[in-house]
Amino acid sequence: ARRRSFFFAPSIMAQETKTNRMRDIRIQKLCLNICVGESGDRLTRAAKVLESLTGQQPVFSKARYTVRSFSIRRNEKIACHCTVRGPKAEEILDRGLKVREYELPKEGFSSMGNFGFGIQEHIDLGIKYDPSIGIYGMDFYVVLERAGFAIGKRRRATSRIGTRHLVTREEALKWFQQKYDGILLGGKKKRSKVIRRRR
Question: What is the pTM (predicted TM-score) of this model?
Answer without folding.
Answer: 0.78
